[in-house]
C-alpha cells in the first residue's frame, strides 16, 4: 500500500501546475493587449513553473495511478481551474451548455478513473 502522501501529492501538484498553465495560456487576454511576441515569451516564462510541478506530479503519481488515470484526473483539474479562472479573472459568465459539457467530460473521467 503506497503512503498517503503518494496518493495526495500528485493531485496537489497538478492543481498548482494547472493554475500556472491556465494563466500562461489565458492571462494575457485580460487588460492591455500585449504584442504577440511579448505574450508568447511571458507565457513561456509562466509555463516553466508549471512543468516543474507537473513532471514530479506524474513521476510520483505513476507509482500509484495508471497513466490514463493521471491524464484523466489532470484534464478534470484543468476544467475546474479553467472555469474558476474564466469566471473570476476574465469575468466571463459560465453558460449552461458549457457546464453540461463539462459534466459529460467529468462522467467520462469518472469512467476511466473509478472503473479499472
UniProtKB/TrEMBL annotation:
<feature type="transmembrane region" description="Helical">
    <location>
        <begin position="9"/>
        <end position="28"/>
    </location>
</feature>
<keyword id="KW-1133">Transmembrane helix</keyword>
<keyword id="KW-0472">Membrane</keyword>
<dbReference type="InterPro" id="IPR007437">
    <property type="entry name" value="DUF486"/>
</dbReference>
<keyword id="KW-0812">Transmembrane</keyword>
<feature type="transmembrane region" description="Helical">
    <location>
        <begin position="96"/>
        <end position="115"/>
    </location>
</feature>
<protein>
    <submittedName>
        <fullName>DMT family protein</fullName>
    </submittedName>
</protein>
<feature type="transmembrane region" description="Helical">
    <location>
        <begin position="34"/>
        <end position="53"/>
    </location>
</feature>
<dbReference type="Pfam" id="PF04342">
    <property type="entry name" value="DMT_6"/>
</dbReference>
Amino acid at each position: 500500500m503506497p503512503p498517503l502522501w503518494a496518493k495526495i501529492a500528485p493531485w496537489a501538484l497538478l492543481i498548482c501546475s494547472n493554475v500556472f498553465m491556465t494563466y500562461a495560456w489565458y492571462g494575457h487576454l485580460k487588460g492591455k493587449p500585449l504584442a504577440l511576441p511579448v505574450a508568447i515569451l511571458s507565457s513561456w516564462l509562466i509555463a516553466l513553473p508549471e512543468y516543474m510541478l507537473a513532471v514530479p506530479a506524474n513521476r510520483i503519481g505513476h507509482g500509484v495511478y495508471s497513466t490514463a488515470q493521471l491524464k484523466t484526473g489532470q484534464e478534470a483539474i484543468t476544467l475546474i481551474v479553467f472555469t474558476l479562472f474564466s469566471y473570476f479573472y476574465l469575468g466571463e459568465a459560465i453558460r449552461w451548455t458549457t457546464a453540461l459539457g463539462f459534466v459529460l467530460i467529468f462522467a467520462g473521467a469518472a469512467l476511466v478513473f473509478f472503473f479499472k
